[in-house]
Amino acid sequence: MPPLPPNPGQTTPAQAHQLARAGAAVLLDVRERGEFTAGHAPGALHLPLIALAAREPLPPEADGLLVLAICHSGNRSARAAQLLAERGVEVLNVVGGMAAWERAGLPVTTPGGGSGSSGSDGGGNSRDAGDAI
Predict the structure, then answer these.
(1) What is the pTM of this model?
(2) CA distance 80 to 89
(3) Alpha-carbon distance 3 to 104, whole Å?
(4) What is the pLDDT of residues 75-97, one digit of tens each?
(5) How many Cβ atoms are within 10 Å of 110's Cβ, its own excluded?
(6) Which of 54, 64, 84, 115 could cross-link to 91 by cystine, CB 3.0-4.6 Å?
(7) Cβ atoms of residues 91 and 85 within 8 Å
(8) Catalytic residue among 38, 71, 92, 98
(9) Taking the C-alpha atoms of 69, 52, 2 and 67 in order, what is their torsion angle to the nearest 10 degrees?
(10) 120 has catalytic annotation
(11) Cα distance between the two ends of the chain
């Protein structure tokens, strides 16, 4: 019987933010380019799930660090975390994704270059909760 694949752990957006800010981990946003560009966690690296599934390598900035996989709601990042765990990468899934990140009031970098918290992109442009992330 083959061994079971590793089961990656989970973390909250607040814990992920703390780990990334401390330099102990790197956020890996696995959403599509347009979603990432519309707003992402400051400092997040970008590698869409489809590229990850095609076995594209992680960005070099992730080497040797805990990877925190994040998407919009936590579904794609859960799959990404599983794929990375199967590669032997130390990884956690950010539960609730960017939707939960914003609900927690954590900073979001947006196209205007601003870094704000939920409802604002830091550049004076506010977003409604229903806007796509």
Answers:
(1) 0.82
(2) 11
(3) 38
(4) 999 999 999 999 999 999 999 99
(5) 19
(6) 84
(7) yes
(8) 71
(9) -30
(10) no
(11) 42
